[in-house]
């Protein structure tokens, strides 16, 4: 059995909706158990993350062009387990209100964070959607990301504003990481 954990923060429910979609995608893969871990409960999970997980997927809203303060607090606290996540798989997702909103900076922050933990980063693995005359706003990977999953949600809506295409993109990321975890035996 492989364990995939999703560690996330969500201030207003958008990133939580995407985290759920990532979990749904990972759970499609036989032999994989998925755990959703909100950062405000991270204290209960440090040992679990170190000892049981094969992959950790990081999710945060983009606040001021970077991870939220709550997620950054988790990042800084993880220095206590520095070196313990070596060779686990990692991936990331982020949500913002603007179509761009500087989400790439957040994903880069997550990828560097994973590298600091000597983890192996799994990219989104999708071709970009919505970038030609044949494309549409409901395409898979409509925001054209490669490093991780991006989602956009209108600032004046709650979780219902998270689009189905962004959820599908997130499910794809979860499934990809779970498949990779089944191939990547933990030593
Ligand atoms: C403090 C703060 C900073 C934000 N900064 C950005 C930003 O840099 N770019 C952007 O597009 N949206 C920004 N937003 C909007 C959020 O990214 C957006 O509402 C997101 O969906 C929130 O996700 P959540 O509900 O999981 O917290 C910001 C929101 C807040 C509260």
Q: Secondary-structure map with pairings?
A:
Layout: E1 2-8, H1 14-27, E2 32-38, H2 46-52, E3 55-63, E4 66-67, H3 69-77, E5 89-96, H4 103-116, E6 120-121, E7 149-152, H5 164-183
Parallel strand pairs: 1-2, 1-3, 3-5, 5-6, 5-7
Antiparallel strand pairs: 3-4
Helix pairs in contact: 1-5
Ranges where pLDDT stays below 50 over 5 or more residues in a row are none
Number of strands: 7
Mean pLDDT, to the nearest integer, reads 97
Assigned CATH superfamily: Flavodoxin domain
Backbone CA Rg: 15 Å
Tell me the helix content.
25-40%
The coarse silhouette is globular
How large a portion of the residues is in β-strands, by DSSP E? 15-25%
According to CATH, the fold-level topology is Rossmann fold
Largest sheet: 7 strands, mixed
Bound compounds, please? flavin mononucleotide
Q: Tell me the number of helical segments per DSSP (H or I, 4 or more residues long).
A: 5
Class by alpha and beta content: alpha/beta
Order of helices and strands: EHEHEEHEHEEH
Instruction: Please give the CATH architecture.
Output: 3-Layer(aba) Sandwich
Describe the protein:
- This protein is of the alpha/beta class.
- It has one domain: Flavodoxin domain (Rossmann fold, 3-Layer(aba) Sandwich).
- The chain is 34% helix and 21% strand.
- It has 5 helices and 7 strands.
- Strands 1, 2, 3, 4, 5, 6 and 7 form a 7-stranded mixed beta sheet that branches.
- Strand 5, helix 4 and strand 6 form a beta-alpha-beta unit.
- Helix 1 crosses helix 5.
- The mean pLDDT is 97.
- The site of flavin mononucleotide has 19 residues, from helix 1, strand 3 and strand 5.
